[in-house]
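Thanks for the sequence, V.! I ran Family 43 glycosylhydrolase right away. Repeating your input here for the record:
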Amino acid sequence: MATMDRPAIPSRRQFLASSLALAAPDVAPYLTPHKYGKLVLGPDPSPDAFDHRSVDCPFVFRHKGEFYMTYIGWDGTGYQTGLAASRDLVTWRRLGCILRRDPANPITRYNIAMNWILRDTRLRSKGELKKVRGRYLGVFHAYPNAGYEEGPALIGLCWSTDLLHWEIGDIILRPEDGADWERGGLYKPCLVEEQGTYYLFYNAKSRNLPKSEGGGWREQTGVVTSTDLKTWKRYESNPIVRNGPACSPDQRFASDPCVVTDGKRWLLFYFGLDAKGKARDLLALGDDPYHFTKSDQILIDVGPPGTVDSTYAHKPSVIVHQGDLYHYYCAVSGKYPNEVRGISVARSRPWT
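Predicted structure:
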């Protein structure tokens, strides 16, 4: 179970620094303006498939000379986790559901969404997985009830020797153990290991706010750390990526962290939701895993009417191949409950 430190009050200098936008040259190496324009993985047309309603939350990595993607499938009851493979980062073939709900397990009886497997943190590496004590280590979140994200989710570990069969491990974060900003439930976990310390980045939501404060809930991103994968410590100044001011692209949500390093720089890709309901991918940069400065540039914007991402363009996953940066994201068109939700990609070099 995680322990919680007393929140620290940031200094005036820290507060001002966190609100300043980065200059465009700092962001230029991470821009991917060239959208593929199609879904590279969409809902399975089979009515019995675990992902026949929607496909969501990509996580891309390299393994034994091939590219792989874990993703979340929705069948109308809850989330389950799938795996796909590719040789060219565009054509993906399904390998099946690798984490299914378990009616006998009170944690995963309706949902189990694995969002990350421990991998090489360096952006310009091949993106290969790292083993811990001879096994692959994943992190998941699970909602307690049937339905679309019903109830306050928690975060746990899972283990595998072959990427196809997974053993559920410890539950490491529960919303009731956290501060007010995360009491409504926990979302996507992102696990990074650096010099013997594990950093678990995650977004969480508040309880519903009163109408006087805009109603609904807010999502922000925090971090916890561990050296043994047993005891986890919440960072005393969480959340590390907070909601922006009025009219900002992350006024309501600052969510779904994807954290990598580039030299000494830490990159936290995430998506923001503004007051108008527009979700788009953003970037914050830092010199360490605790202090990030937001860029004012939108990395992946929603497309015009009729495109695959005309409603949302969010939930990032990035990988570099042959010098090109590929930015995968969940592309949504239409409106719920008739929306089309799948995975698309943009990259730094034009498509030819």
